[in-house]
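Could someone model zinc ion with this protein?
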Amino acid sequence: MAAFADDFLIGLREWLAIPSIGVDPAHHGDVAASAHWLAEALRRDGWPDVRVWDEGPALPAVYACWPAADPDAPTVLVYGHHDVQPVDPVEQWHHPPFEATLVGEELFGRGASDDKGQVAMHLLGLRAHLAATGAQRPAVTVKLFVEGEEESGSPHLTRLLDDHRDDLACDLVVFTDTPLYGRDAPTVCTGQRGVYGAEVVFTGGTSDVHSGRSGGGVPNPATAIARLVAALHDEDGRVRLRDFYADVIEPTEAERADYAALPFDEAVWLANAGGAQGLAGEPGWSTLERVWVRPTAEVNGIHGGYTGPGLKTIVPARASVKLSFRLVPDQRPELVAEALREFVADHTPPGLHAEVIARGDGAPPYAVDISHPAVGAVRDALQAAFDQPVRFSRTGGSGPAALLHGWLGVPVVYLGATLPDDRIHAPNERVVVPLLLRGAEAAALLWRLLPERLS
Ligand SMILES: [Zn+2]
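Reply:
Sure, complex below.
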């Protein structure tokens, strides 16, 4: 591994210098440049089949395949993304976000952790795998699929999957966009929550009215929104949408035991949770369980009426709330959407008009069965690379794992080597380089373990 480490860093820093901010149309040229950089790097490494998919409407994605020597060996598809988040507020960065800067073991730069660092880890992993086996070809057929729209919510991913069904066919997806639990507590992630978001708008008249002349005689949309929000949870913090918990699958005892065994420092956790001053959540579940395996309803923002300086005595014409629901297996975004519409109808007072505006279709949740042999193989590979016990974890965020699982019809396992406090999506994103090297070691070993484990 050490033999390739210098090379690895030089390459990664070059790639991180390309500002591939997918959500900003002004940077779409950079997203293309980033895709071509990766394609070149793969060709340099000897990948025999490398393509940039840039026929639109999706931003350029990179596909590569390195067939196994044994035609009967399993095929693994590694998923990652090369688009990055915007960098504002740029003045809060200690180093320029697109001049990757190495400080000790940490490499600072946008995309260092999410997700270019982890994709580069797989390039290194394959080089190490071939070096370790002394073979010209890997022990499994390795395909790499690196999209350019993940930070935009992967709007054209289904189209890419459909257009390239044969290329992407595989026996297993290795999803590489999630962190370890901690530097001294390596974990194998087994699932991500889904998400559904919507805005609820209550409208009364066509304009704000005088609270003296009309107040008391007309319904107040802001009061109604406040009542709706207050009704969303019961006293215990459980969500009151109809059948919200009906499809929830609880984690196994083995998973819960692993979560309980992970080191948990409340003060540190709260500091990383925006400096929150105390824990809250559903009784009967630990904090990790609340954010990993329990569904939520969150108020993202409430808007309505006059909030400027001084007083303005009105009854507002309109008020609204933005909501997001994090979902766990087997909840379905479309059923939550339906239950929300019903809930809003039940909480719309006479004289007000209600509207529910969905923010896209949402993303379904995903979790892999922990008894699947590929999960055991990832765990063993990480255990060997990190030389310590590896427990199960999940992540509370959302991604396209369920979509990949649904379209490709194969299980998705997670291999990541970054940290939850890498400040992804925030100023001063970093990655801990020795962890990426261990992740590459784990990938190199995983390709050796899989033929037997999946047979
Ligand atoms: Zn990511």
